[in-house]
Protein: Resolvase/invertase-type recombinase catalytic domain-containing protein
Organism: Streptomyces zinciresistens K42
Amino acid sequence: MEPLTEQRQVNGPVVYGLLRLVRVSPARQEALVGSLAEYCRSHELQLSGVFTDRDTAAGAASAAFTGLLDVLALPDVYGVIAPAMSHLGPKAIAAERRRRIEAAGSRLLLVRKPRTTHHAAARTGPVRHRQPGTTRVLDAESRGPRWP
């Protein structure tokens, strides 16, 4: 009898990482690359490389992003992974980069989903303050705190 698929080495869809690192320590860079690798491992994706954008003056067409677009043209590339939308650049540049990634036929995956803003007037219940001894629960999807 053949072993189950879960017991075999199977390559997942190929993705490439994109990091925007301006004045970031080597330890922070290592942690960000590690978070991409862990996300890919847990979602059965194959992280084939990470493009690092350090040039803030280049706009939407930095050398790192141009290289990323080149590999997206390769066959069997599923998409791009980034820690958060901010790694695509400031809002206007990020929107243009997202459009170009999607135009290349690739998906954009974010480790941290964009936060929705909640206005104080939209709250339906009283604000709960943390009490001594209260345990904080972390939401695995957004990695943000939730209070029980």
Residues 120-148 have pLDDT under 50 and may be disordered.
